[in-house]
TrEMBL record:
Entry's Gene Ontology molecular function annotations: ATP binding; carbamoyl-phosphate synthase (glutamine-hydrolyzing) activity
SUBUNIT field: Composed of two chains; the small (or glutamine) chain promotes the hydrolysis of glutamine to ammonia, which is used by the large (or ammonia) chain to synthesize carbamoyl phosphate. Tetramer of heterodimers (alpha,beta)4.
Species: Xanthocytophaga agilis
Biological or metabolic pathway of the protein: Amino-acid biosynthesis; L-arginine biosynthesis; carbamoyl phosphate from bicarbonate: step 1/1; Pyrimidine metabolism; UMP biosynthesis via de novo pathway; (S)-dihydroorotate from bicarbonate: step 1/3
InterPro entries: Anth_synth/Amidotransfase, CarbamoylP_synth_ssu, CarbamoylP_synth_ssu_N, CarbP_synth_ssu_N_sf, Class_I_gatase-like, CPSase_GATase1, GATASE
Keyword entries, A-Z: Amino-acid biosynthesis, Arginine biosynthesis, ATP-binding, Glutamine amidotransferase, Ligase, Nucleotide-binding, Pyrimidine biosynthesis
Protein name: Carbamoyl phosphate synthase small chain
Active-site residues from the entry: C257, H343, E345
High-level lineage: Bacteria, Pseudomonadati, Bacteroidota, Cytophagia, Cytophagales
Length: 366
């Protein structure tokens, strides 16, 4: 595999900041919300996570692409990011079992990217100015034309995206003879989440995002799982109503990330768009029930409002982020329902939080 030709590429931010680098992946133009992930590894899992739909990812690790790609490490059926930014890009890979180089993988998926940029500078800029839209181009080098195209990209605030990435047809995962059945509401779920449930003897039916409680209940599940996903939770009244119905039916429920925010909204708690979000494999969280700390994998740009949580008598805060004290977990005192803001399936990431899947299984068995 040859190195890609050093075709010039531009990265233009919404505030007018311009970076010059070189093209990777497909030659073209693509825009989205610019955000950064601090993970040292696991780039393929990040790119295929549906929660990143509509976003351009800045990889803070210096070298990207050096171990290639492998079909088994997909978190969904396709690449979900809008574009990628990195410092050093390797179009060749050293892992013998890899299926393809990252360059070939991106070309096939139609992903536009840029490398040769000081990603530390970009990260500092986002941390200071906040997450914002951006556009990458390797075929349009006219800055004014890029500005016009950038202005057409919708703001993530108020954007409903789960219905675009969710499965179109229900499907099953696990052993149909398993003693426990879980209805999974797919708002943009990762494969490893469903697999973590299946590994614990749970038979899952994964339903499209806009499936009603009544339709899922006809399967007679023992519990409900509300998945992660992209976009603004406040733009998803359909999911909030479904979760309210699950709560009213007194059914065990577990939510992750977007599912956590939907449970909060269904419980009368407000959500908000964060300044620049949490994305990486190294976020410290304290479990307020056990007093233990966890190093967690995270990917979210929205969160629940701490002051409104404490105003709801039937909701208890179970986890907090030790970096900024944002709410990382809640549970209902009056219903068998709980959720966390982070990713206990940890793909990629540390496995400190996988006990939460065991807690969900125990909740269904009690």
């Amino acid at each position: 595999m040859k190195y890609p030709t050093r075709t010039e590429a531009l990265l233009l931010l919404q505030d007018g900041t311009l970076y010059r680098g070189y093209a990777l992946g497909k030659i073209g133009t693509k825009g989205g919300e610019l955000c950064f992930n601090t993970g040292m590894t696991g780039y393929q899992e990040i790119y295929t996570d549906p929660s990143y739909y509509g976003q351009i990812i800045v990889n803070t690790n210096s070298h990207i692409g050096n171990y290639g790609t492998l079909s088994e490490e997909q978190e969904s059926s396709s690449v979900k990011i809008s574009g990628m930014v990195c410092n050093v890009f390797s179009s060749i890979h050293s892992r013998n079992i890899a299926d393809a180089s990252l360059q070939a993988y991106f070309e096939k998926a139609g992903i536009v990217g840029i490398y040769g940029i000081d990603t530390r500078q970009i990260v500092r800029h986002i941390r200071n100015q906040g997450a914002m839209n951006a556009i990458i181009s390797s075929d349009i080098l006219d800055e004014e034309v890029l500005r016009q195209k950038l202005a057409e990209i919708p703001d993530m605030n108020g954007l409903e995206l789960s219905s675009e990435v969710s499965t179109k047809e229900a499907y099953y995962v696990g052993n149909q003879d398993s003693p426990l059945k879980v209805a999974v509401l797919d708002l943009g779920i990762k494969n490893s989440i469903v697999q973590n449930l299946a590994n614990r003897g749970v038979y899952c039916q994964v339903f499209p995002a806009k499936t009603s409680f009544e339709e899922m209940q006809r399967w007679n599940p023992d519990g409900y799982f509300i998945s992660n996903g992209p976009g603004d939770p406040s733009a998803m009244p359909y999911a909030v109503e479904t979760v309210k119905d699950v709560l009213n039916a007194e059914k065990p429920m577990f939510g992750i990330c977007l599912g956590h925010q939907i449970l909060a909204l269904a419980s009368g708690i407000e959500t908000y768009k964060m300044h620049h979000g949490h994305r990486g494999l190294n976020h410290p969280v304290k479990n307020l029930i056990t007093g233990k700390g966890e190093i967690t994998s995270q990917n979210h740009g929205f969160a629940v409002k701490g002051d409104t949580v404490r105003d709801i008598a039937n909701v208890e805060v179970t986890h907090i982020n030790l970096n900024d004290n944002t709410i990382e977990g809640i549970r209902r005192k009056d219903k068998p329902a709980f959720s966390v803001q982070y990713h206990p399936e940890s793909s990629p990431g540390p496995h400190d939080s996988r006990y939460l899947f065991d807690d969900f299984v125990k909740l269904m068995q009690d």
